[in-house]
Design a protein that fits this description.
This protein has 375 residues and is of the alpha+beta class. It folds into 3 domains: 134 residues, no CATH class; 56 residues, no CATH class; 147 residues, Heat Shock Protein 90. The chain contains 8 helices and 9 strands. The strands form 3 sheets. A 5-stranded mixed sheet has the order 4-6-7-9-8. The chain has a two-stranded antiparallel ribbon with strand order 1-2. It has a two-stranded antiparallel sheet with strand order 3-5. Helix 1 packs parallel to helix 3. Bound molecules: adenosine-5'-triphosphate (ATP) and magnesium ion. Magnesium ion (MG) binds next to helix 7.
Length: 375
């Protein structure tokens, strides 16, 4: 906020506060005087009119920012009462013998009432501020707790494959000579797959740090979707050589407005889920089509599926479903959350539906781009 940034803004807001306080004083005292005139017309006693001014000072104390206004309005209240309502009227002289005492009493009563009202207002404001500060502190503590839990969970998930890799490597170092070829190959494969898993995990974690308020910073260019899909499929086939991915691109060249590396990451994450949550002997299908000004990319599997009540939650960060994959290694629950922020930052949508007879279909859209033929 600019109020605290430069002297000019500060003096501007101070002038505004002064104007507001003076207007309150003027309005309330004028109102009390007008009401006093009405009281007088109905022949009500002086004491009733004095009460009006005391109430006016009370109101002013509540609605102005400084206690000075209470003092000033107490004085002005007495002067106004003297001027308009004591004999002789419309003059500052008062002929009644008791008037000086009345004026002093009126002034003191107004001042005390105003000061008390002001004090009360202050106490309420302080109580409100204390409550707010307490709430903020609680929220901060909760965030800290959340961050600590998150870090613990991430570290735990990352430690498991690291332990396995170092264990396997140590076996190779100490007993390498005694192992036969197939045992050695098994260890090499394990090390490879554990480190690939780690790389994917860290990749997602790194991308997640780029999300701000659910959105991600993008470098958008017009890309040919087929190239992006091919690159992603190549990556998935390398990490899951045993699985077959059937790609259907409808022979059409689809230009999209996208940050290519991020879309590759989305497709890799979706295929990774399809692989992880389906049996090894089932296929994974990837298709690309065009619907008016959007390209639609679909990844489907015949795996364990997602229960209806989890379909929205799977896009939350760190949510992992209740159904476990055959592969006992559970993920961090980052994949789909990342996909969603990447796709919505592109102006597309991502959704989940059921596959028949079993499994999951995840579809996302990307805006079609214009290809510049002169390039
Ligand atoms: P990460 O992707 O971070 O390694 P993850 O796969 O558990 O971990 P997400 O990709 O965000 O996390 O998926 C969230 C949850 O949604 C998964 O834990 C799983 O339960 C469910 N899920 C996602 N894709 C599928 C799928 N194709 N079939 C069945 N369940 C799925
Ligand atoms: Mg995943």
């Amino acid at each position: 906020m600019s109020i605290f940034k430069n002297g000019k803004s500060v003096s501007k807001s101070a002038a505004f506060a002064l104007l507001k306080d003076l207007s309150v004083c003027l309005l309330v005292l004028t109102g009390a005087t007008l009401l006093g005139c009405i009281f007088k017309a109905f022949h009500l006693a002086d004491a009733d009119i004095i009460l009006l001014y005391i109430i006016a000072v009370l109101v002013i104390s509540i609605f102005t920012s400084k206690i000075h206004y209470c003092l000033i309005s107490s004085v002005i209240g007495v002067v106004l009462f003297n001027y308009f309502f004591t004999y002789p009227e419309f003059s500052l002289s008062a002929h009644g013998a008791g008037y000086p005492v009345t004026f002093v009493t009126m002034f003191i009563t107004a001042l005390i009432a105003g000061t008390l009202a002001n004090q009360l207002k202050r106490n309420i404001l302080i109580a409100e501020q204390n409550a707010r500060e307490k709430e903020e502190a609680a929220l901060l503590a909760q965030n800290e707790q959340l961050r600590a839990n998150m870090l613990r969970s991430i570290s735990h998930d990352l430690r498991t494959p690291l332990t396995s890799i170092s264990g396997n490597a140590s076996t190779l170092i100490s007993n390498g000579n005694t192992l036969d070829e197939s045992a050695k190959n098994q260890i090499y494969t394990d090390i490879y797959s554990e480190s690939m898993w780690l790389i994917e995990m860290v990749e997602n974690l790194l991308y997640s740090t780029r999300i701000e308020d659910g959105k991600m910073q993008l470098t958008i260019t017009v890309e040919i979707l087929d190239d992006i899909v091919r690159e992603a499929v190549k990556h998935v086939e390398r990490t899951h050589p045993k699985r077959s991915i059937k790609v259907d691109m409808h022979d059409e060249i689809v230009p999209v407005k996208a940050d290519a590396s991020l879309i590759v990451q989305v497709i890799v994450n979706l295929c990774d889920n399809a692989v992880k949550y389906s049996a090894d002997d089932t296929d994974i299908y990837l298709s690309v089509s065009r619907e008016r000004e959007f390209a639609v990319i679909t990844v489907s599997d015949n795996g364990i599926g997602i229960p209806e009540e989890e379909k929205e939650k799977v896009f939350d960060m760190f949510f992992t479903g209740s159904r476990r994959s055959s592969d006992s290694r559970s993920g961090l629950g980052l994949g789909l959350a990342l996909c969603k922020s990447i796709i919505s930052s592109h102006g597309g949508t991502i959704s989940i539906s059921e596959n028949t007879p079993t499994g999951t279909i995840v579809s996302f859209t990307l805006p079609i781009g214009e290809v510049d033929l002169n390039e």
